Write a sequence for this structure.
């Protein structure tokens, strides 16, 4: 980030004047008098003087001022971004530690994790973890109406997805995981409280990818949730104890990740216990999972360099470079650089400063360039000199960035466990090198032009379609009603993706889903405007028709072709066909349906056709509102396809 402040004051007044004069012939060819007495030249001199003064001020801004200006554009200091991922037990390996070990362990953050047979790149756990060998003996969904669905076998196989909170996924729907430890002494296996303090129980979630929308390509960019929408309860017999979810990288069960549970305040847990999970306000859309499993290890690539030695020369303005490259620190945070100087009087920590020129002769400070990894000390007047021969000890974290990525389904070793620990079901990815100041300047320019308030209709629609994990398939802003007063209210109509080209039985645009879209977009709306997100006004209808095929055609095949044709023509979201989507407010008539059916291969004629509303009334046209769409109920429709009658005259 220090690259945001190169030496900007490298151009002077005359430089700007020369640049301006050189561009005058191309920008204003009719302007021929470029002498000092011309008013235009006087104005150019004024602008050149202003630009010189501004550059002079910018080049002398403090580091905190530069960071504040960069933060206004969303640019925060960041080092090398480390690849991250998750280690699961190998369900195909009967000798996996989670199946053979009995005693609970604490896995420290500094434990080495590596791909089998490969020493580099090295990985580390992302937190202090409580590893509890055992088995899920029951995974059930308890619905608000009292129904119960058992997912134990489906979860163990991990081949097809299931709905852990049902299709409604409301606030009263609960996912219950019953777990049995291998150690009969219980989850803590006789460990002292101090020994397990700060260790988190990790529950891994392998989620199915969203049905369309912007989720597939943007899931990797999401950060773990600290304020999770989930609640967790530990159930032991008749006792219920709320437990805190420290971190949630699953985005509320919508993406693959882990839940880290804090058990520090729990006194003891027997061999068999239950953890209940639910969303306090319901889910914006029903989560879909392939597999849920405790003891998944979240890992990150990198290592910590501890007490790297450098010998001081005693010279003014002495500096040295960190031996390891790829300094790692999170966006918006200070690098975790710990520096101490071992002097004859003892070892003493020194501290980083923004500018040595602002320090006194006795200040134990240094400058640190995060872009180059250079540490610089003072000259005895501005910042104290480390004594000659004293040992400088520095500790910091590094990562190999994108070079540390690992493909999926690799076998892994974890220090302290014999043999293969597990596999990564998804690639270890997300690493990136530090962006130089040129890249940061380019990103600042992009954000200044693109990341703006949602002013126009196109802005709002594009932002809605770009929301990750919510499966927004289609959106539009309807024209305002001229008869209603202008109150600053903006209406957005949004449609959810469908799992197939057949319309679901219930309308997928629930109130919770629409409210989730509104919450995520409202912060980007202009001050004084009010956003209303709503679903389209659906009008349910069905058809009853009798079709006669051409001679020799199979009625079942023709019927299937008719259903496929109608699904394409009446689709409200993109299903990958070459037929344009239906526009809101456009009705469906008997004439339209008859034309589509007759155009189907194998159809000779339409003998009978009736169009019916959802209430069973027969009508000639399905009318919809300006923001409405017709919704074909295929299950209630009757399409009777017959062969032509034998003999007779047609």
């Amino acid at each position: 980030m220090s690259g945001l402040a190169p030496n900007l004051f490298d151009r002077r007044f005359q430089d700007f004047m020369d640049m301006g004069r050189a561009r005058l012939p191309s920008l204003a060819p009719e302007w021929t008098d470029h002498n000092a007495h011309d008013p235009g030249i006087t104005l150019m001199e004024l602008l050149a003087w202003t630009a010189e003064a501004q550059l002079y001020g910018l080049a002398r801004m403090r580091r905190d001022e530069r960071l504040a200006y960069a933060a206004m554009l969303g640019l925060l200091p960041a080092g090398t971004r480390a690849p991250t991922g998750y280690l699961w037990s190998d369900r195909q390996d009967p000798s996996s530690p989670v199946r053979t070990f009995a005693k609970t362990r604490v896995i420290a953050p500094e434990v080495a994790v590596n791909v089998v047979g490969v020493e580099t790149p090295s990985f580390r756990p992302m937190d202090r973890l409580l590893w509890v060998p055992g088995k899920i003996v029951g995974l059930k969904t308890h619905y608000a109406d009292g129904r119960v669905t058992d997912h134990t076998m489906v979860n163990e196989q991990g081949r097809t997805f299931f709905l852990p909170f049902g299709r409604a996924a409301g606030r009263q729907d609960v996912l219950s995981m019953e777990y049995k430890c291998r150690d009969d002494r219980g989850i803590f296996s006789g460990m002292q409280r101090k020994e397990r303090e700060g260790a988190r129980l990790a529950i891994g979630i392998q989620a199915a990818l969203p049905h369309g929308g912007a989720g597939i390509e943007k899931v990797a960019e999401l950060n773990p949730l600290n304020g999770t929408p989930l609640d967790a309860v530990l159930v032991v017999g008749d006792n219920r104890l709320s437990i805190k979810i420290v971190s949630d990288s699953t985005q509320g069960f919508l993406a693959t990740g882990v839940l880290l549970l804090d058990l520090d305040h729990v006194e003891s847990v027997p061999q068999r216990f239950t953890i209940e999970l639910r969303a306090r306000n319901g889910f914006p859309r029903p989560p879909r999972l392939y597999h849920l499993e405790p003891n998944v290890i979240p890992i990150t690539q990198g290592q910590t360099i501890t007490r790297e030695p450098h010998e001081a020369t005693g010279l003014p303005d002495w500096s040295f470079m960190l031996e390891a490259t790829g300094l790692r620190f999170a966006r918006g945070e200070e690098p975790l650089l710990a520096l101490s100087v071992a002097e004859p009087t003892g070892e003493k920590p020194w501290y980083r400063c923004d500018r040595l020129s602002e320090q006194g002769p006795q200040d134990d400070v240094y400058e640190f360039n995060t872009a180059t990894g250079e540490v610089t000390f003072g000259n005895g007047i501005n910042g104290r000199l480390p004594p000659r021969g004293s040992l400088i000890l520095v500790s910091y974290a590094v990562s190999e960035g994108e070079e540390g990525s690992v493909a999926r389904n690799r076998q892994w070793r974890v220090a302290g466990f014999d043999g293969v620990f597990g596999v990564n079901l998804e690639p270890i990815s997300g690493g990136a090198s530090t962006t130089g100041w040129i890249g940061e300047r380019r990103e600042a320019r992009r954000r200044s032009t693109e990341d703006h308030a949602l002013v126009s209709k196109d802005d709002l629609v594009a932002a809605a379609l770009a929301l990750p994990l919510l499966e927004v398939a289609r959106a539009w802003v309807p024209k305002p009603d001229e008869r209603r007063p202008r109150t600053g209210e903006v209406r957005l109509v949004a449609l959810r993706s469908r799992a197939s080209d057949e319309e679901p039985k219930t309308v997928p645009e629930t109130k919770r889903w629409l409210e989730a879209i509104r919450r995520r977009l409202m912060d980007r709306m202009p001050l004084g405007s009010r956003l209303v997100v709503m679903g389209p006004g659906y009008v349910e209808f069905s058809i009853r028709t009798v079709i006669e095929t051409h001679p020799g055609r199979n009625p079942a095949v023709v019927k299937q072709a008719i259903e496929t044709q109608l699904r394409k023509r009446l689709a409200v979201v993109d299903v990958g066909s070459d037929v344009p989507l239906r526009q809101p407010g456009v009705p469906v008539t008997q004439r339209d349906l008859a034309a589509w059916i007759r155009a189907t291969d194998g159809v000779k004629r339409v003998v009978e056709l009736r169009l019916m509303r959802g209430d069973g009334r027969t009508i000639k046209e399905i009318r919809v509102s300006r923001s409405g769409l017709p919704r074909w109920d295929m299950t209630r429709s009757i399409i009777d396809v017959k062969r032509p009658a034998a003999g007779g005259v047609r």
The chain has five domains: 2-72, 132-295, 305-398, 452-534, 537-642. The domain at 132-295 is CATH 2.60.120 (Jelly Rolls). Residues 39-58 form the longest helix (20 residues).
